[in-house]
Amino acid sequence: MIDIYLPRQADEDYFNLIPSQRVMVNKLLNEGVIINYSLSEDRKRLWVILLAGSLLEAKKIISKFPVFPYVEAKIYNLLFHQTTTNSLPQLWLN
Questions:
Q1: How far is the CA of 24 from the CAs of 20, 32, 86, in angstroms?
Q2: Number of domains in the chain
């Protein structure tokens, strides 16, 4: 799990990176690398749960985030992550 502290006073350069950040996160979500990505209501922190083989691999992944130069990140190893599955009802084609 990665606890990311966003900048207290962000400039225009930071805000211009947000669209590319979202594109990268969506790509990693679709690939199954990122499992969860959450933003606090006050927009001061992000929580990211990702699959990585090592601490070094996790650091490599987040260092590629477009907003990385503007944030402070702390990585925590998780023993497990449990969540509910939201699934769509099964479709039957007749």
A1: 6, 12, 23
A2: 1
